[in-house]
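Sequence and structure are no longer studied apart. To make this concrete, we show below a single chain and its fold as tokens.
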Amino acid sequence: MNPIMIPFYNPLLSYEENYALGPFGLFAEKPRTIAAVEPRERFLGLPVHSTFGIPAGPLLNSRFVAAAFAHGFDLCVYKTVRSKATPCHSFPNTLAVDCNNDLTPGQTLIAHACAENEAPRSITNSFGVPSQSPEIWQPDMAAALRSAQRGQVLIGSFQGSGEGVAQIADYAQTARLVAETSAPVLEANLSCPNEGKKGLLCFDHEKVSAIVDAIRKEVNDRPLLLKLAYFEDTAALQTLVRAVGNKVEGFCAINTLPARVVDANGQQALPGKGRDISGICGATIRWAGLVMAQKLVALRAENKLHFTIVSNGGVLTPADADAYYQVGADAVMSATGAMWNPQLAQQIKKERCHETS
């Protein structure tokens, strides 16, 4: 098969197999040489060749990150880590979903295995938040950082475990563990759609504020981003922005949109309790990512704040990325699009008149 058509994360293999054997396709080939040109842009004050990259999710370890950097994705987020080893949801995790329109609330989608020679428009994202133990991911994240060349930035994503006060403390502890790897930017994941039915953490502005304060007491020497879900309620987003918009350096949005997924017979497509609902990625959620970017841009101006906006959701082509830049996003990322098109960053740089050699 043409390696261009092979996703660097293989949805036909388990998460554990991908971690051990990946990446695949073009990402498995010898890295290309990046020309020694001066970075032309800035991200959180850091020099970068472009403000485009891959968000938390498909870059499982340092091999994936190194391959992404080598293919011109200049902002790479190391998959969300935790303070203790946590297993992945059972296989399968990534299925193609049949949805040619915008995903709407309450919609049920038919899901099936991804075809070997076809890039799906949208997929399920049903992993939970798996993590190796810090003894494994800390040295590996440090190795991922060493693969970055001048003009490229590694972002360390993390999530706290537990409930209540214990969860707040664990966010701070895990932030410290990430900082110990020397990752120059931190991202607190507040928006995993597969962590139970109690509601996403990012919608609780008081708890988010407490988490940010705890993290800042533990780590206060590098930029902190918050990963958000889609906020349908603009007033709720306004409350969150007013609570923490001057305490963090930026917001990343969106994660995924939830939907019920079934097989061709109408049965639950993903095995296991609580997995009837899955986070959906890809073209069908692009509308939500763009709306969220517009909301954050407006709230930033209205509240006279200066946070950075990192947008993603349905970026499959250079035109999709440009749409985000046009509404005011400072940086753009792609997961689904990048997985099936490892050349996406180079194509976007060409469109935006960047050096591509």
In short: The first helix runs from residue 15 to 21. Residues 6 and 55 are 19 Å apart (CA to CA). The chain has a mean pLDDT of 93. DSSP finds ten helices and 15 strands in the chain.
